[in-house]
Design a protein that fits this description.
The complex is a heterodimer of chains A (117) and B (115). Chain A is mostly beta strands and 117 residues long. Chain A is built from no helices and eleven strands. The radius of gyration of chain A is 13 Å and the shape is globular. Classes of the chains: A mainly beta (117), B mainly beta (115).
């Protein structure tokens, strides 16, 4: 079945530093990937839609200059949390759909737990 | 904008019994998809079941079935013969039929299974 690989699975960084999270579709191509954030005991909230070869679409309230998204190929999207602060600590999950198979379901990565100290 | 509401923050069921998780949604679209996802402590999102809005027949997957009431905009999940491994967070989700559209999630229901 379709697999989405997300790396790293967890990361601890200091305030002010930047962290890059990768999301790869391993056996399919994805022109669109989605980045979600999940705070403890809460639901998944869409942050942005990553579009291959073009700019990402950000949801209201999400700072595009803080959460940089790059979707340079059909199998890779990256989310960079710039100048991280403790309030950015959260669980980040990416998802992707196989572009070649109509209305296929979304496949999720295993998520990245970010802790900013 | 579409919204998804899960009115039960927590539910509990005895092992081998049946439990129903509720979900309602709001949309002006006529064609869409509805999903139930399971999120165990590992935080991995696992697709449980999917329903196309244009299909009147309720989807079933082994012990999991849905009661899809399009007019009422209701999409409940029934888990039969509950097992300890069913304990998890369950999220109801909506997606427009337009290709490329994202999922909108409900707030989630924590299901506990008592041995």
């Amino acid at each position: 079945g379709a697999v989405v690989s997300q790396h790293p699975s967890w990361v601890i960084c200091k305030s002010g530093t930047s962290v890059k999270i990768e999301c790869r579709s391993l056996d399919f191509q994805a022109t669109t990937m989605f980045w979600y954030r999940q705070f403890p005991k809460q639901s998944l909230m869409l942050m942005a839609t990553s579009n291959e070869g073009s700019k990402a679409t950000y949801e209201q309230g999400v700072e595009k200059d803080k959460f940089l998204i790059n979707h340079a190929s059909l199998t890779l999207s990256t989310l960079t949390v710039t100048s991280a602060h403790p309030e950015d600590s959260s669980f980040y999950i990416c998802s992707a759909r196989d572009s070649g198979t109509g209305n296929s379901p979304l496949h999720f990565g295993n998520g990245t737990r970010l802790t900013v100290t | 904008a579409q919204t998804v509401t899960q009115s039960q923050p927590e539910m509990s069921v005895q092992e081998a019994e049946t439990v129903t998780l509720s979900c309602t949604y709001d949309t002006s679209e006529s064609d869409y998809y509805l999903f139930w996802y399971k999120q165990p402590p590992s935080r991995q999102m696992i697709l449980v079941i999917r329903q196309e809005a244009y299909k009147q027949q309720n989807a079933t997957e082994n012990r999991f079935s849905v009661n899809f009431q399009k007019a009422a905009k209701s999409f409940s999940l029934k888990i039969s013969d509950s097992q300890l491994g069913d304990a998890a967070m369950y999220f109801c989700a909506y997606r427009s039929a337009d290709a490329g559209n994202m999922l909108t999630f409900g707030g989630g229901t924590r299901l506990m299974v008592k041995p």
